[in-house]
Amino acid sequence: MLKRIRLLLVVVLTALSTVVALAVPSAAADTPVPPSSAGQRWALKVADHYVTVSAGANGDSKLRASMTATTPGPTEQFTLHTDWVTGKGFGTTVSFRSEATGNYVTTEDDASDSMLRTRATTIGAWERFTLKPLSGGVFGLLASNGKYVAAELGTYPDKGLLRARTAQPANVETLGSWERFSLVRVDGQGSTSPAPAPTAQAPVARDVVSWNVCANNNGSCTLNDAPSATVATNVSNALHQAMGTRRPDAIFFQEICEKAAKPLELALESWAGPMDVRFMPTSFKVAGTSIEAQKDCDDSKDGVSRGSFGIALAVPDSNTWYQGTVLPSPPKKGTDPAKEQRPMLCAVMPAEGTAYCNAHFSSGPYTDANGNPQGDDTDPSDLYRPKQAQAMRDTVDALTAKGYTTYYGGDLNTTQNDVSYLSTLYPGHQECGQPTPSSPHTGAPTDGNNKIDYIFGPQGPTYTCRVVDGTLSDHRMINLTTS
Questions:
Q1: Which of 61, 161, 199, 306 is most buried, judged by most C-beta within 10 A?
Q2: Which pTM was predicted?
Q3: Which residues of the chain, if any, have pLDDT below 50?
Q4: In degrees to the nearest 10, what's the CA dihedral of 306, 308, 310, 313?
């Protein structure tokens, strides 16, 4: 109960913050990062010391090389983010968000000795760093002031302090040990143990919804730059109107921002009963590395960070296990922009014997409003949507082998003309829109004149499928019911 009260206060305060126009939004108005986010966590090491966020006597949130930390606790953990840089795109720089403070690492100005602190609530130029690969699998951190980050490990009075103070050398390999950083993966992306076995048989009757809510990627959509509380309220209201008196057993969301997850959970609970909303970010490989950084949503129109961009999964709060997966996704080729690394998110309800998996597949070729060709999965000789479908099916089969009845789907970015790309998702299962397992792969359009949103379930029950226009998005919601 205390958890719900605290989260309700967050939503109320966030909603109130959108009523008054503030010249500079305060950190207090920001919605916290949900603990249910399945984004990968990382630790930084320099000269064999973990980098820690030091609260200090005045809560200064300085970054320094720890002399005591032997394992990465909350003060040594970060999530990596990448935002749009004009003329360069995503994946060219990385920003560090502290798990301890929820703020981004910033480079202070010269008057503050160019120290690094976790005090920024949004990403700007001073929160961006370039990862420069070095021999030995380590990196130099090039800050926005044009200098490399160094840890003061000698006789500097503020022991271990990180400062962006090393001029760029002619040969980057000459950087010293105090300027060579390694990134260490910390357990993340949800539950780290295997999924538990179900304790009950799944009921036949299920009610599952999938909806791309268009909360960041399309400027013509209602929620494109809306504050987190506004997204939560409007999405919940639209779903409630579409569902009437029926309670959804699971809802798959795509194109949603991380910090809307908890407010949305509470909004849904006002009519749908106790639920958990889990989140999984979309990512980009950082230029010149194999490191993945979460794609950040644009700040809301009132200047507040909305966290990472990705997918969410709303399930009953009997959920005890959830896990995010980065699906095989197109790589960057030549001078093309970096490609989105697409997410999948699964959760199980052992007490109901049911599992759910939501995904957002790579986009196929299309033309934007300006007549320019777009899309990530555009190489006919090396298509990734079939690989993404296979990865989803492998996960579904593993959950089925444990005894779960699994429902899966999402925005699979594949029209009926190319439905063969999804062929591995069909055997032994049935798709919302197929009256029988042997029926043609057809259905009402969900995006313009195309059907690109899908929900699959087990064969056996009687299926009905509705497509409902929630008016907020360029996608319509799709609703599977079984009986």
A1: 306
A2: 0.92
A3: 1-29
A4: -70
